[in-house]
Amino acid sequence: MKFRSVFPAALALAAPLLMILSLLMPLACGTGSSPPTSTPQPTTASLEIGLVDDPSVNFQGFQNILLNLISVRLNPAANATDATSGWVNVPAPSGVGGPVGSGTILTNISTGGRYFNISNPYTNPGTSELQVDLQTLQDNVVIFNTGGVPPQTYHTVQLKIDPNVPGTIVPNCASQSPAPIEGCISYPVRIKGASVTAQTRLPVKANKLTTLVLAIAVPTPITPPNVTGGKFTIGPQISLVPNATGSPAVNSLMTQIQGSVSGIPPGQKEVVIAENAGTSNQVAIAEVRNGEYAMQVPAGPNGTNYDIFAFGAGSTYDLVTPNSPSPPQPLQRGINNIVNFTVKSAKTGVLTGVISDDCTINPAVPIEGATVELLTSSNGTDCTTVPTPADCVVVATTSTNVFGQYPTPGRSGMPQPFNFVPSSPNPYAIRISASGFDTMIAPVTSSGGKVTCGTNQNCNFALTHAQITGTVSITPGVNSNAEVQVFAEDTGTNNIVSALPSPLAIPACGSPPCTAGFRLNVPLSPGTYDVFATSIDLYNGAPAPFTTHEYSVVSGVTPPGKCEAASISIPTLLCAGHGSFSGTVSLPFDSGTTVQLLKDGVQIEQSQVGAAGTGNSGNYSFCAPADDYDVERAENGVLVPPAMNVMVPTPIPTSTPCVMCTNGGVCPGNCSDQQGPSL
User: Fold this and answer.
1) For an engineered disulfide with 610, which of 368, 619, 630, 664 has Cβ 3.0 to 4.6 Å away?
2) 478 and 661 in contact (C-beta within 8 Å)?
3) How far is CA 303 from CA 331, 336, 633, 638, in A?
4) Summary mean pLDDT of the chain
5) Does one domain contain both 371 and 416?
6) SS3 11
7) Which is more confident, 588 or 657?
8) How far apart are CA 594 and CA 607, in angstroms?
């Protein structure tokens, strides 16, 4: 889904992708709480672990099935148990996620999370965890982590799941009426069985990279709780996706990238980074050892395009893009790709500055959380042009702090690239973007250890914007205040460009609806926006992942100009209750096929279409408050008519006390599921 109202900030502005570093360096074996380290370990083999869902699983009836993963461990003994000695542990990457409250992991889909159950998570962060949604792993491998392990043959593999908070499930509404439980809310999970274990034969050779891809299945029956808010019981299973026989042993769902890096200055550490082409989404990082490197990265059914580059703290960049003559891209599954790089010693300079709001002066207001990217090419291409040329690669990315300053510190085991921008005859470009602001691109020059940004010697930038102001009204929940988030997206698209930095808190008033004012920054370009509002509702005292209030929309809003505002009034968000529907998309479809949910022509939610060849093939599903909508197929974000109407019915009213919102004193009952249109 494009939007998850449980997250209290504008996390829906970009569907976050999994950006876990596959650091090909030894990791400490044990509890998984130790950070990555370059300290020599008594291991001489690297094990890279990926996750995918079992293609036979059918997820119909569920919006999300999320598991909180601590580690993957292996044992050379067959049928090993907890009492068996010799376990080797590869933990979730250290530092994944951030602090959350009450030991609950509230990360977005397929992003990182940490389990905190201690007093000070900053000084003693506890065990790292990775939270994954099995729905997003359909035919799509994500890298869990890479660790140093003893070279030997392993016969038992075990997936370790958080025993205290194993995961959560969000079911669709029940098909029977009256429903025994409420759908479209989060339920805790109980794991059936002592462990999630598989038997295998996995030879791991010294001084080699071995890939282990685990397919995770949650077979039926999935046992629902007896009461609302109880625990679903699931029995996860794992199996191994086979690697090719011989050498190199490339996994059937991955593509291997390996080769040499020549010209590395003496004593310098060098890495090779693979990121999704045209983005800053780093998928894997391989440490160069003795001039050689190797990594395996996910590949889609039709291949995947990657930007690949070598980086060190005192050498030039060398780049490979889909436009490069070798290797041919997209990179295909099961293939070994030889990619060699040549770098040379170079003086480096520091790229630093402050990003602020152009509509404020004396003092200028800093922009926190702005994304700052450094781009370059290998052939002198001007990377400041729009759209960005395919030859240009994002070689470094960072964000601004509360004072608008960049870069942020580098991560453990890898220097901050903005502090080591090498002198180069190929020009650089800096690209700055932030929610609600126009993206800015400027030239950067690095020469003789000095970095300058065109005529802006100090590399400080101010971003421009317009504004949308107005009011929004809501009928609050039962005896409670309301929280409302407001979004703006390019008219006629699902491209969200802005959201309020924090939800509006609307206190209960004597005579609902209750109203609050808002001010929303939007870019000057393209200049016309669809605005929609949604509430962050509580269910039995906890935030529900899907709203029980109607979405409210205003389309075609055009601010008059820079720093000027268009004023609107967003219609009242009425209490409607939960609802869900599911349908199918006919062939042909691929990873670029989605289904959009529209209200009055404004795109509100997005559903992924189940991957071909899986148990969920062609299926789509929505949780949405009771209302009148259209659904329409989209290919790579472009709507493909015709749109089909769907009416999500209002739940049958129930007696008090209400667990959700009320509408004129009426409490919506449990929602029900229905069949959606075929597209």
Assistant:
1) 619
2) yes
3) 5, 13, 23, 22
4) 84
5) yes
6) helix
7) 588
8) 6
* Burial of 52 (C-beta count, 10 Å sphere; 0-12/13-18/19+): buried
Where are any strands of DSSP class E within 228-291? 232-234, 237-241, 254-262, 270-276, 282-287
**Burial zone of 194 (CB within 10 Å; 0-12 exposed, 13-18 middle, 19+ buried):** exposed
Contact yes or no for 335/304 (Cβ under 8 A): no
Last residue of a domain, one of 529, 550, 573: 573
Cα 439 from chain centroid (whole Å): 21
Instruction: Give phi and psi for 425, each to the nearest 5.
Output: -70, -20
634 shares a domain with 541: no
Residue 360's domain is classified under what CATH number? 2.60.40.10
CB of 261 closer than 8 Å to CB of 272: yes
Task: Give the other-Cβ count within 10 Å of 242's Cβ.
Answer: 12
The residue type of 332 is Q
Is residue 127 within 8 A of residue 33, CB to CB? The reply is: yes
Instruction: Write out the two tokens for 149.
Output: 């392990």
Q: What is the pLDDT of residues 270-284, one digit of tens each?
A: 999 999 999 999 888
Question: To which H or E segment does residue 49 belong?
Answer: strand 45-53
SS3 472: strand
Asked if residue 218 and residue 140 are part of one domain, the reply reads yes
Amino acid at 210: T
Among candidate residues 253, 252, 270, 250, the one with its CA nearest the CA of residue 261: 270
Q: Say yes or no to pLDDT of 329 above 50.
A: yes
Confidence label for 109 from pLDDT (cuts 50, 70 and 90): very low
Residue 362 neighbours by CB under 8 Å, 6+ apart: none
Q: Is 135 helix (H, G, I), strand (E, B) or coil?
A: helix
The total number of structural domains that make up the chain:
5
Amino acid letter, residue 215 = A
State how far Cα 635 lies from the chain centre: 20
Domain harbouring 514, CATH code: 2.60.40
> Edge to edge, what strands does the sheet with 45-53 contain?
142-149, 45-53, 209-217, 237-241
Q: Which helix (H) or strand (E) holds 370?
A: none
Is the residue at 88 inside a domain?
Answer: yes
| Each residue's pLDDT tens digit, 47-69 | 999 999 988 888 888 998 989 88
Residues 410 and 341 in one domain: no
Q: At which of 434, 463, 492 does a domain end? A: 463
C-alpha dihedral sign at 327, 331, 332, 335: positive
Do 188 and 168 form a contact (C-beta atoms < 8 A)? Answer: yes
> Is residue 387 located within the same domain as residue 516?
no
The answer for 110, left when phi > 0, alpha when psi is -120 to 50, beta otherwise, is left
- Residues contacting 98, CB < 8 A, separation 6+: 114
The number of beta carbons lying within 10 Å of the beta carbon of residue 346 is 20
Residue 339 shares a structural domain with residue 431: no
3-class SS of residue 417: helix
CA distance 666 to 72: 49
Reported confidence tier of residue 529, pLDDT bands at 50, 70, 90? very high
CA distance 285 to 415: 13
Q: Which of 642, 548, 545, 549 is nearest to 598 (CA)?
A: 642
